[in-house]
User: Fold this.
Amino acid sequence: MSTVTIPSRFCGPPQSANGGWTAGTLAAAVDGPAQVTLRAPTPLDVGLNLDEVGSGVALTHDGVLLAEAQAAVGRPEGTPPPSVSWDDAVAASEHYVGFHDHPYPTCFVCGTDRGVDALRIFPGAVDGREVVAAPWTVPADLCASGRARTELVWAALDCPSWFGHLAFHGGSTRILLGRLTARVHEVPSADERCVVLGWPRRKDGRKIHSGSALYSEDGRLLASAEALWIELREPDAAG
Assistant:
């Protein structure tokens, strides 16, 4: 057993951790591609238990299961679409729907109320394609030995997958990440310019399936992910 703490810098909703950062925390303990299922909001600034469970790992706090990870099996569903140029990603980012309606504006990855301590990945629709894109420069302070930390790569793959659905199909913004399966082919370097893509896959009731990918500036696929998002039920009169 080991103990990890997720600082408030890496929040998604204001009082809990960003789902991608949480998932990457567990994925770092799994060899190769990993699938992480999020079971409950992950609290910030407190010690969390990271335990080996079978062939995977589990994250708990005060006896509550927060997330669990295991090696990803099988082939990914579909092939990631080709990237776009850096300039096209910059142009697409201007159409980011989060500028007008954002459920978590303080999110470490995609929040519009965050400053330079956050990633500020704002993926917008690409003209003529059913994908969203955003430019992203890897922050050096979140790298180890000159390479992006696992948590950072997974975080960058998180929110773009949601906006890849929302930009084209709309719907409620009351959502949370339920599962993220990622394959990291090449870890980007500190200060490297990258392009992040997101796209829709399908919707089953309140379950939304989408994809995301991280590319180098010259179009090499660095990492890809399949995401499952859950639409939250609207509160009743009692809240």
User: Anything to note?
Assistant: The chain has a mean pLDDT of 95. The longest strand covers residues 193-204.
